[in-house]
């Protein structure tokens, strides 16, 4: 039998005594992730296991505080982990396109950079001074004098040999010329031509012999010049070594425990000795060195060539890093190689390397939002590539995909040692899991955030701890016990369950923030229940414009719904409308007409292509119920039409199937139904009423219409008995129930609903197998027998049913669209 609920059942009140009548400041701050024991266990496992591929995919609905909770959880773990090393890049003197990576303990990267800068600046200052010193100048002059003496000796010997053979040696920049002599004077070409042929041949033969000696002498001169340059370079190098060793000695001592650094410093020292013109400038000319050209960049700027690019500086950090990358593009994730314009060309070097979040989180934890990660081009593939190799290579995205023609750097890869935590909703997880095999290989741990948690006194007090943490973090007022009780009730309403609390903490926190605003305006010390109620009402009012406009249509009978009286084949169904952040219920008139025929039950919503698949299924179940209930009376000689009146949008779901069945039975039995009652609930073929969603919104929607048209004290809603635990009705509805102005009835079967809606007994089969004639079922059976007799008398043949998804009038038609949410 249908049962009317009590006021206590309409809303599960929270007791302020649970909080000891104390404010939120009396509770301990929240420690851990509230209401997510399963997710916390999965997180702890995934973060603790060292095997490859055990990164974590956090799955949960938006608004459950996934990112904030996971970040707080990771930050607590990170405090006890060692601080990872600094990451530096330095010039590769052997291959400038492949910068070298150096890993140093936290803070030492900055030290290395400062040491190298100090050394370069010192050498730029001290090296020219050393080369201007008297000792260097004297040594240099000694080398020059010695080489010059040897040069003069070679030239003198060459000249004497030529003169002995009758030739004058003329040395010009283009080379050496041998001019024949006659009587101590150069022989001109005209005079040479007038000489006898024999004398000319003799002069040419002597010239050839002298040229051989001159060639040998010139080779010795060139060798002498090379020896001179080498001697001067060796002098410069030896002199510079003493300066470099003096100023670089402290650096060798400071980094004696780091072999990679020592190797780099030695290579830098050798390169400085090879690149003395970078420090000496014009004074290097004539010493066998090429003076630098004014071009800029690593090649010509010692401050840049010997710089240390500290990509990751951990100085001042304690524990492992926790990085939340909210914009995970490929460069932000992997890193980037910047460029700068030099003489119209874009150039780069190791000082323009920039770290991505993978490097910033290395040694710790990286949190990535899945929607943004998938939207960023190449970011998802770049992340998987890095996690498979467990190393990160800073690269140009264009070069990797063949879109960059200029030569780019190939920095040395950095080993990775981190845990990546992806945060997404269930749709993202299952799409990736089924369509991308790498997800199963790389993210083997699923940590699923529940949208609800059990409602117990302990969990209600944990709510209070959350409120304290929120108030202290955002400098809000603390909540008193009555305010916390109201928020617990709101949490149960969000969960749609009296025995559960919602974990949609982002939404609950917004209510607290708004209530704090009202408390601040009033000058209150604590946020009270009145402030919470005002915040909730204001949030509802801001989103209720469309709802109010629709209610006006009911008041003016533009949308026709009766809330008094009785009608045959007509019942008030209930639907839920989703409008942004607001969900609200509306009554819908459902009507049924019946006649003799073979067509069965025709769903007009389906025929008009407004009905979804689930709604169609619900209507088909009605046929199963009727056949099971009345098969003995007649072989279903029925043509019935069902419709949602004034419904112009898609209809889906089976929550109206019980209302449709009541309307159909009313039309068959010719028994009127109460119009002051609305109905929701699904039904199965055995006539059992099943639970539905949105029960609170549906009840409140009918209550609002009844209040607009005038409450009579008899109006109410029939809901499935299985939905009793879902009731968390609005305060005004609860008040009306308490005063007897509105009612909610729990029904378990169609027969219970029939009795309440008609005031008649539904009827049960007696010993003779028939229904009592005055019962509702008896009247339905009699009508079906009458239809059968009518069909036999007219000889109407059985109707040929159209194929599933087709209309008799239209023939085959395309499948139904997907059900709407």
Summarize this structure as a short list of keywords or feature phrases:
821 residues; alpha/beta; eight-stranded mixed beta sheet; five-stranded parallel beta sheet; 29 helices; 31 strands
In which order are the strands of the major sheet placed?
1-31-30-27-22-23-25-24
Number of helices: 29
Overall average residue pLDDT: 86
Distance between the termini: 33 Å
Query: What percentage of the residues does DSSP assign to strands (E)?
Result: 15-25%
Q: Low-confidence segments, ≥5 residues, pLDDT <50?
A: 284-288, 291-296, 796-821
Structural class: alpha/beta
Helicity range: 40-55%
Using DSSP, what is the number of strands? 31
Shape, per Cα inertia axes: elongated
* Biggest β-sheet strands, sense, barrel: 8 strands, mixed
Radius of gyration: 47 Å
Description:
The structure is a single chain. The protein is of the alpha/beta class and 821 residues long. 46% of the residues lie in helices and 16% in strands. The chain contains 29 helices and 31 strands. The protein has an eight-stranded mixed sheet with strand order 1-31-30-27-22-23-25-24. α5 (134-164) packs antiparallel against α7 and α7 packs antiparallel against α8 (259-274). The chain starts with a strand and ends in a 27-residue tail after the last helix. The relative contact order is 0.10. Residues 284-288, 291-296 and 796-821 have low confidence and may be disordered.
């Amino acid at each position: 039998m249908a049962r009317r609920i009590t006021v206590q059942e309409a809303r599960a009140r929270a007791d302020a005594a649970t909080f000891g009548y104390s404010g939120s400041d009396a509770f301990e701050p929240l420690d851990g992730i509230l209401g997510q024991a399963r997710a916390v266990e999965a997180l702890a496992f995934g973060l603790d296991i060292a095997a490859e591929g055990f990164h974590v995919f956090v799955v949960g609905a938006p608004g459950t505080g996934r990112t904030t909770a996971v970040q707080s959880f990771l930050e607590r773990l990170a405090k006890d982990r060692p601080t990872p090393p600094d990451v530096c890049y330095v010039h590769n003197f052997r291959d400038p396109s492949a910068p070298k990576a150096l890993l140093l303990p936290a803070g030492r990267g900055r030290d290395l950079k400062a040491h190298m800068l100090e050394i370069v600046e010192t050498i730029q200052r001290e090296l020219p001074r050393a080369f201007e010193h008297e000792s260097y100048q004297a040594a240099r002059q000694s080398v020059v004098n010695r080489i010059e003496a040897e040069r003069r000796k070679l030239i003198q010997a060459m000249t004497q040999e030529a003169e002995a053979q009758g030739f004058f040696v003329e040395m010009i920049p283009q080379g050496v010329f041998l001019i024949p002599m006659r009587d101590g004077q150069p022989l001109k070409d005209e005079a040479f031509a007038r000489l006898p042929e024999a004398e000319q041949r003799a002069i040419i033969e002597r010239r050839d012999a002298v040229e051989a000696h001159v060639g040998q002498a010139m080779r010795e001169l060139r060798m002498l010049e090379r020896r001179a340059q080498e001697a001067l370079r060796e002098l410069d190098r030896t002199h510079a070594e003493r300066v470099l060793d003096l100023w670089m000695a402290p650096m060798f001592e400071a980094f004696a425990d780091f072999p990679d650094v020592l190797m780099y410093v030695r290579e830098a020292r050798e390169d400085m000795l090879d690149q003395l013109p970078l420090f000496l400038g014009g004074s290097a000319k004539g010493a066998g060195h090429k003076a630098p050209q004014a071009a800029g960049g690593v090649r010509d700027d010692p401050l840049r060539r010997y710089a240390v690019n500290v990509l990751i500086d951990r100085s001042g950090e304690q524990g492992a890093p926790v990085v939340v990358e909210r914009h995970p593009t490929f460069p932000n994730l992997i890193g980037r190689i910047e460029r700068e314009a030099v003489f119209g060309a874009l150039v780069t070097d190791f000082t323009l390397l920039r770290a991505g979040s993978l490097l910033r989180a290395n040694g710790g934890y990286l949190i990535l939002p899945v929607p943004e990660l998938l939207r960023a081009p190449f970011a998802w593939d770049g992340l998987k590539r890095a996690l498979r190799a467990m190393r990160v290579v800073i690269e140009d995205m264009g070069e990797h995909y063949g879109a960059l023609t200029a030569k780019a750097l190939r920095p040395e890869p950095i080993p990775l040692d981190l845990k990546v935590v992806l945060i997404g909703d269930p749709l993202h997880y299952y799409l990736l899991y089924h369509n991308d095999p790498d997800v199963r290989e790389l993210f083997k741990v699923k940590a699923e955030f529940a949208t609800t948690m059990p409602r117990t006194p302990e969990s209600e007090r944990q709510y209070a701890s959350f409120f304290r943490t929120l108030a202290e973090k955002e400098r809000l007022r603390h909540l008193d016990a009555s305010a916390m009780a109201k928020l617990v009730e709101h949490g149960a309403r969000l969960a749609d369950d009296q025995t559960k609390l919602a974990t949609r903490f982002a939404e609950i926190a917004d209510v607290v923030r708004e209530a704090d605003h009202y408390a601040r305006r009033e000058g209150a010390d604590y946020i009270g229940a009145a402030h919470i109620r005002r915040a909730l009402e204001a949030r509802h009012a801001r989103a209720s414009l469309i709802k109010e406009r629709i209610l006006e249509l009911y008041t003016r009978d533009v949308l026709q719904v009766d809330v008094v009286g009785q009608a045959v084949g007509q019942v008030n169904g209930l639907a839920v409308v989703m409008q942004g952040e607001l969900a609200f219920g509306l009554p819908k008139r459902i009507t049924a007409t019946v006649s003799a025929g073979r067509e069965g039950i025709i769903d007009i919503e389906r025929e008009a292509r407004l009905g979804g698949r689930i709604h169609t299924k619900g209507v088909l179940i009605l046929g199963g119920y009727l056949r099971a209930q009345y098969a003995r009376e007649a072989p279903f000689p029925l043509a019935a039409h069902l419709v949602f009146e004034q419904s112009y949008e898609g209809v889906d779901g089976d929550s109206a199937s019980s209302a449709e069945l009541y309307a159909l039975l009313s039309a068959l039995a010719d028994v009127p139904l109460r119009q002051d009652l609305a109905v929701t609930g699904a039904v199965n073929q055995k006539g059992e009423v099943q639970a539905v969603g949105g029960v609170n919104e549906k009840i409140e929607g009918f209550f609002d219409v009844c209040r607009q048209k005038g409450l009579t004290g008899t109006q109410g809603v029939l809901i499935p008995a299985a939905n009793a635990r879902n009731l968390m009705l609005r305060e005004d509805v609860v008040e009306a129930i308490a005063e007897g102005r509105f009612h909610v009835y729990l029904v378990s079967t169609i027969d219970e609903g029939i009795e309440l809606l008609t005031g008649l007994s539904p009827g049960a089969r007696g010993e003779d197998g028939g229904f009592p004639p005055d019962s509702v079922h008896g009247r339905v059976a009699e009508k079906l027998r009458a239809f059968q007799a009518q069909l036999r008398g007219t000889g109407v043949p059985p109707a040929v049913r159209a194929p599933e998804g087709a209309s008799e009038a239209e023939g085959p038609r395309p499948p139904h669209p997907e059900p709407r949410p």
